[in-house]
Amino acid sequence: MAEEAWTIGKLLKWTEEYFTKAGIDTPRLDGEVLLCHVLNKERIHLYVHFDQPLTKAELAQFKDCIRQRVQHKPVAYIVGHKEFMGLDFNVTEDTLIPRPDTEILVEAVISRLQTGRENTGIIADIGTGTGAICLSLLNYLTTLRAVTVDVSEKAIAVARENAERLGLSERVEFFQGDLLEPIRGRKFTAIVSNPPYIPEGDIAGLDVDVKEYEPINALSAGTDGLDFYRRLVAEAADLLTEDGFLAMEVGIGQANPVKALGESHGWGQCEIIKDLAGIDRVVVLWKQK
Fold first, then answer.
1. Domain covering 92-286: architecture
2. Taking the model in full, what pTM does it have?
3. pLDDT at 129
C-alpha cells in the first residue's frame, strides 16, 4: 500500500473490499469513520476530496486502524469516542459503547421529567459507564441535576472527563460503588439505569466485537439476565420522591418479567416502551402513591 499514491477515494474503495472479505458488518461506514479519525476531518470532507493523497504518516496510521478493525476491535474503541444523543462521548475499553437503543431510554426520561414540572429535580444514573445517559439528560434538561454510580473506578474517570468536556461537571456528582449503596438516604425525582442484562449462557454467542472487547461485567447478569433488575426494583422506591419513577433499559423478552417484578414489589403504574424496531426496550415503574 505505501508504495503507491493512495488517494482518499482509492483507499476507501480498497478498505471497503478488504473489510467485506474480513466479515466486517459495515465495511464502508467503518472505513470512512476511521479515515476521518486519521485526517481529523468530517465525513463530507472525504466526498469532496476523493483525489487527495494521504501522507506517509497518515497512511501508516490508517493501516494501523485497519489492522485493529479486522481483529474486530470496535471502531469506537479505535477512535476513542462515540456519538450519542447528538453529543460526542469519550469511550475506552473500561466502558460499554453507547448504543442507539439507549437513546429510547433517554428520550423517555426527558419527556416524563418535563411533564408539568418547572424544575426537573435530581436523578440518579446507576451503572453510568461513559456517563452518556445522565450527561445527555443534563444537556437537554437545563434545570436537572444528577448523581452517577458505577462499580468501576476507571469508568467513572471516563464519565468525569465527558462531563468536563460537555461543560456539565457542576451539575453532576460521581460515586463508586455497588448499585444504590453509595446514595442511600437521598431522594431523587427519577432513577435511571441501563444495567447488565445478558444471560451468562448467551455471552458466548455475542459478536466478537462485543465479547472480546467490551467489559463483560457490564454485560452479563446471572443465568436469566435479571439479577440487577431484581435488586433495583426491590430497593429503588425508597430513594424516590412521591411522584418519582424508575426507568430501565431491558433486553429482548425481559420487559414483562421486569413488569412482574414491579407488581410483586408494590410499584404503581408500569409503562413499556418499544424501540424503533418494535422491540420492548424500556420499562418505567412509577412509585405507588
1. 3-Layer(aba) Sandwich (3.40)
2. 0.90
3. 94
